[in-house]
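Example 3.2
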Amino acid sequence: MSDSPETLILNVDEAADGVRIDKFLSDTLTEYSRSFIQKIIKDELVLANDKHVKSNYKVAAGDVLNITVPECKTPEIEPENIPLDIIYEDDDIIVVNKPKGMVVHPAAGHYSGTLVNALMYHCKDNLSGINGVSRPGIVHRIDMNTTGVLVTCKNDFAHSRIAAQLAVHDITRKYNAIVWNPFSVESGTVDAPLARSRKDRKKVAIDQSGRRAVTHYRVLENFKQFAHVECQLETGRTHQIRVHMSSIGHPLLGDDVYVIEVNPRSSRTVPYISKVTGIPIVPLATKVILGYKLKDMGYEPGLQPEAKHYAIKMPVFSFEKIRGADISLGPEMKSTGECLGIAETFNEALYKAFIGAGIRLPKHKNMIITVKDEDKQDIIPIARRFEALGYRIYATLGTAKVLKENGIKVIRTNKLEQPAPNLMDLILGHKIDVVIDTPPQGVEHQKDGFVIRRNAIETGVNVLTSLDTAEALATSLENTDLNNLSLIDIATIARR
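Structure, written as tokens:
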């Protein structure tokens, strides 16, 4: 927030039509908390078309919102005699080893006991002022519960030079961490964009609309249940290491915020795991509840020996049986079951899973691609792979233009309202294998995308609304001998 009142003007587009104004503002103004948004609405600082509204007001396409952000009164920051673990100091910089539990700079709920309070006492007035009165000397920061080295600056010249080096990655930042679960690889990279969680504004989550975040990790030592890793940051996002490590199944030991979901029930997943591992999970769990020990039943704690085969559980959808339902996928559960693909290679298992889910390719080797604007660059490599597989690609004007500009052969076809031959003629002609269609948010049933998806499903054409799924399908087709699939009898799989 600024140190003086700020006025923001927002225009509501079609995608947000019908959304509550408090949710719209929370999703749009991500730098502010939900409670803050609710407060300024209650204080009549939010106008829709020059009228005061309540938090339950639903915005409409074309609405003009006027938001007054009240003045933020910066509290007085006092120097405090707090011992510092100083690693290096000269006239320009001071390098400090920040302990766990110390906040780097004052913020809501932490206006004392911070590193800045300690630096102000130690350095007197000799701290850079580029980052404002509440962050003197601070060029970069780490989480409160992270121990690590910070470079702080005593003057603006040093601050600007250090900041410039950080921006172009001339400074290498490496962190050591103890994480859950040993690794099967020596090193790797997590490249996943981060943004404020839409469910919990205090958290950060992987979000394709967020800022790019890259973490390179190297396994220093594996233990029975844990691993010691070195993480090198290519970018420096909030909670980056914590979120990235958790996303690949290796949450930080002792992290009380970013943990893997614990679901204490026997879902449909459990029978699948029992079948492919040969371990009777439900009977074992029942005995554990009754007081038996795993060791007494012949099992050792930790990961069990790795199987020689891959097993992939894939959701099964029954959209063709539900008339009028849009098949586009979101965060809510829409699957009506699962199927299993199992093989000695990942790609063959993936292909079998697709077959089990009802996707049987190739047939005619014709496909339709129509994607929203933000997906047009991401669809290029996927389309190129399907082209290499021998597919003839049809696309409407916008998508066709992007594909042609990138050297992909594509046949432009008309939209539904345009003369034949158009998309519907292709679908109803029973010559299309698959449709890749990613709908923009807020699309209504009467829109072209909905009509295309519904008619494709009801005609027996495979429809993919996720680029990740399309990429996985291409991978399975590229790497599987479709005429020589293996047979694995899961009934014979014994415990290893």
